[in-house]
Design goal:
Elements lengths: L1 E3 L3 E6 L2 E4 L1 H4 L6 H4 L15 H14 L5 H10 L3 E2 L5 E2 L12 E3 L5 E3 H8 L8 H4 L3 E5 L5 E5 L6 H10 L3 H4 L1 H8 L1 H17 L1
Parallel strand pairs: 3-9
Antiparallel strand pairs: 1-2, 2-3, 4-5, 6-7, 8-9
Helix pairs in contact: 3-5, 9-10
């Protein structure tokens, strides 16, 4: 671990740099409060990895029936992804509204990911984009070829930060499953060990 007054403590695990708020900040989604609002509000769609594009296309017929008519129409117009103003590959959004085309809604208006709905039913092999599964962590590719993991602080998720603090759940603990699935058990074990040392010293 290294410390910098401007950026705080940086945890290095292999070629991955992790900012201290990943292990010090509290977070736990409070769906009863937010109703999935992060999927329908934003300046752009969810970031996508190039490797995810084929998976979305391959599974589209499985989850598309759950999507809204306007969501399917958006995909028909834009294909399975778009390039946003920052030149990033992201999910299509409905009529520029910020609503992800891949969302689905129940009768009460609660928002869910159509991919994940089908994944849990066993009808879709792709769960959802990595950027969604890892949220509030955002992954940045470094010029060195490594990765940087940082917490994205968004006012929409204030209830999640409050719930995490009430229940004593840190960001990395809340995201244990996706962190292990994407980066491996050894990475998570090393991150947990660093978290224990860092939080004990604070």
């Amino acid at each position: 671990m290294s410390s910098n007054k401007e950026f705080g403590t940086i945890i290095q695990i292999g070629d991955i740099l992790v900012s201290e708020d990943v292990v010090t900040e509290h977070f736990a989604c409070d769906y009863s409060k937010c109703k999935g609002i992060c999927c329908v509000i934003g300046d752009s769609g969810a970031p996508l990895e190039e490797a995810e594009l084929d998976k979305i296309e391959e599974n589209y017929e499985s989850f598309s029936p759950l999507m809204s008519e306007k969501g399917r129409a958006q995909v028909a117009r834009n294909s399975f992804f778009i390039i946003d103003r920052d030149n990033d590959i992201v999910t299509p959004i409905v009529d520029g509204s910020g609503e992800c085309a891949y969302t689905t809604f129940d009768e009460a208006g609660n928002c869910f990911c159509s991919m994940e709905k089908c994944f849990f039913k066993g009808t879709c092999k792709f769960r959802k984009p990595q950027s969604c599964w890892l949220y509030p962590i955002r992954v940045t590719k470094l010029s060195s070829g490594g990765l940087a993991l940082n917490v994205h602080h968004w006012g929409l998720c204030k209830d999640a930060y409050e719930k995490g603090k009430r229940e004593g759940i840190r960001v990395y603990e809340f995201l244990r499953e996706p962190l292990i699935a994407i980066f491996g058990e050894e990475f998570y074990s090393a991150l947990s060990a660093a978290a224990i040392r860092l939080n004990a010293a604070s």
